[in-house]
Amino acid sequence: MRLCVNFVPLREIFCMAQVTPIKFEINAQQGEARAGVLTTRRGQIETPVFMPVGTAGTVKGIRFEELETELDARIILGNTYHLWLRPGIDVIKSAGGLHRFISWNRALLTDSGGFQVWSLGALRKISEEGTEFRSHVDGSLRFLSPEVSMEVQAALGSDIVMVFDECAPGEASHEETERSMNLTARWAKRSKEAFNRLQSEGADTGRVAAEGLSGTQALFGIVQGAGHLDLRRTSLEQTVNIGFDGYAIGGLSVGEEKSVMFEVIEDIAPRMPKDAPRYLMGVGTPEDLVEAVARGIDMFDCVLPTRNGRTGQAFTSRGKLNIKNAQFTNDTRPLDESCGCSVCRRHSRAYLRHLFMTGEMLASILLTHHNLAFFLDTMRGVRQSIRSGDFPKFRREFTERLKANGE
Ligand SMILES: [Zn+2]
């Protein structure tokens, strides 16, 4: 936010208006479920939103044209860890940032690399300063810290940047989680300081002029604390005290019971700032999304639709189905009879099964397309139902249909 003193010349009075990297407006609410619009420097995103994951500068198995036109994805994710290791920051910088490198003009959110590094397990060593780890690409020793992560994300030029955090394992003790949560808070503060410095130095390669918006990157904080509600609340307080443009719940869906995950969301989401977007990281199945929206979440990302699409699993309105099963050999129906995507309009289960059984690359492409369409359509339905006041009915019918099971 830029502040102006009172005695400025008249022509500069425009900067008296509040200028922020993002704008977030809630249009409708039912219970804790919210429907709104998140405006970034690269366009508007209706929330609740599902963000397809573009790990290494690609949403695996789908072309950008399809993401834009048929699926109308307004925002996708990029992974700092993967892009930093390959192709490396110099390549992306010389291309003019990640948007230009991959030719995607809509919004991009990048994670901090913290979760990927954490997932390396024994291959990493965490200290106050940051995390040392061996690259999974070439085995070289690398070091990631709040400062390095902010530097990489500025070079990528994403529109939403995530703070560098540490994730405690789902089954971590209270003591271990508390230590990790406090480290996350200190890293969040360092992330914000480094982020502000980089913005003022003009390091953000994704700078664009945006009407009413600052054109700078937005920075989101992350609430940790595993399954311990008291620590989750403390972490939220610590994060809000530092102050961010949006707030995420991290460290869920990492091996804890599903009931624990929903307990945390139900307790924490309604306590998060009401005027900022709330992002649940790395979750989940279509039913998880609907249930988390009911508890107050606005943004999601998950690899499930793309990753499972590549192995033959389709998400449908009547539950999951594995297209490789013999029962689909002569099944002339589409993957999901109530899906309007181009795959369901054109191809049968029998044909898709044949593609998988013969190892054709089109198999993964078509299933990925349908799965993403199903996730994005589900969120479209969620938004419409919140706006029309029918969300409880949508939620009930959605859940009942899923139980009918597609197989
Ligand atoms: Zn479909």
Quickly describe the structure:
This protein is an alpha/beta fold. It has 15 helices and 16 strands. The strands form 4 sheets. The chain has an 8-stranded parallel barrel, surrounded by 5 helices.
What does it look like?
The chain is α/β, with parallel strands linked by helices and 407 residues long. It is built from 15 helices and 16 strands. A hairpin with a 2-residue loop joins strand 1 (23-30) and strand 2 (33-40). It is globular and about 60 Å long. The chain starts with 22 loop residues before the first strand and ends with a helix. The protein binds zinc ion.
Helices and strands in order:
Blueprint: E1 23-30, E2 33-40, E3 43-47, E4 49-54, H1 64-68, E5 75-78, H2 80-85, H3 89-95, H4 98-102, E6 107-110, H5 114-119, E7 124-126, E8 131-134, E9 141-144, H6 146-156, E10 160-162, H7 174-200, E11 218-223, H8 229-242, E12 246-249, H9 258-268, E13 278-280, H10 286-294, E14 299-302, H11 304-310, E15 313-316, E16 319-322, H12 342-346, H13 349-357, H14 361-388, H15 391-404
Parallel strand pairs: 4-5, 4-14, 5-6, 6-10, 10-11, 11-12, 12-13, 13-14
Antiparallel strand pairs: 1-2, 2-3, 7-8, 8-9, 15-16
The chain binds zinc ion (ZN).
